[in-house]
Amino acid sequence: MTMGTVQGAGVVVTGAGGGIGAALARRFAAGGARVVVNDLDPARIEPLAAEIGGFAVTGDASGVVDAAREALGGTVDVYCANAGLASPGDAFADEEVWAAAWDVHVMAHVRAARALLPSWLERGSGRFVTTASAAGLLTMIGAAPYSVTKHGAVAFAEWLSLTYRHRGIKVHAICPQGVRTDMLTAAGSAGELVLAPGAVEPDAVADALFEAMDADRFLVLPHPEVAGYYQARAADPDRWMGNMNKLQQKWEASEA
């Protein structure tokens, strides 16, 4: 699927009030897609919907499929599960923080898939795009709920792909490092140390997704070096964790 072939497709982007979500919505609309933008706050998406000639559907990302399908005239072709939370904290983070991260990063994707898969499997096509994170392939210091649930997001996307790819379902997992969005700011000093130096603009993430769609590639890596990190982690987990622990110690020293 390239810029030319999204013409007329029905696309849903959750968490589209800014950052990566808004960039994805603009890119799909520029290719001629009919786009539903979703966010909890209507003030964040109604101007975007007007800008791109799309549709604003307000509400929790977990339950947006039916309303989005109606807005699009009955068919969703591409679903971008993009809504996310910064979710910093360690093992002692409040239960509510863990529960919210799990709900937004994993269960919202599961609920969307449940709603989409029957019609997709019946017609033999559909595309599910998960905005995960490099933290879902690697990890992120200072953000246990975020890291763990982004791993869950990648795992569910992998499961969807390996289970349904022969039945026409395409799946992509976007796994950037730092992106210049409000979520990077919310990552605090750990984000400043690890993510900010190599941060890219949201448009670069949209570029990477379209390149991956064109190549029919599961992993979307706006930071190509993440592939090497992922390989190094798998090849020698103890060395990888040792290096990450050194980064943890550097962060702790900077906070002292």
Give a written overview of the molecule:
By secondary structure, this protein is of the alpha/beta class. Helix content is 53%, strand content 12%. The chain has helices at residues 19-30, 42-52, 65-71, 95-123, 144-164, 182-186, 188-194, 202-215, 225-235, 237-255, and strands at 10-13, 34-39, 55-58, 78-81, 126-131, 169-174, 219-220. α5 (144-164) links the parallel β5 and β6 (169-174). The longest helix is centred in the middle third of the chain and has 29 residues, at 95-123. The radius of gyration is 18 Å and the shape is globular. The mean pLDDT is 93.
List the helices and strands and how they pair.
Layout: E1 10-13, H1 19-30, E2 34-39, H2 42-52, E3 55-58, H3 65-71, E4 78-81, H4 95-123, E5 126-131, H5 144-164, E6 169-174, H6 182-186, H7 188-194, H8 202-215, E7 219-220, H9 225-235, H10 237-255
Parallel strand pairs: 1-2, 1-4, 2-3, 4-5, 5-6, 6-7
Helix pairs in contact: 1-8, 4-5, 9-10
DSSP strand count: 7
Broad shape: globular
Strand order of the largest sheet: 3-2-1-4-5-6-7
Cα-atom Rg, whole angstroms?
18 Å
The H/E string reads EHEHEHEHEHEHHHEHH
Mean pLDDT: 93
Helix content: 40-55%
Poorly predicted segments: none
Strand content: 5-15%
Largest sheet: 7 strands, parallel
**Termini separation (Å)?**
49 Å
Structural class: alpha/beta
Summed up, the helix count is 10
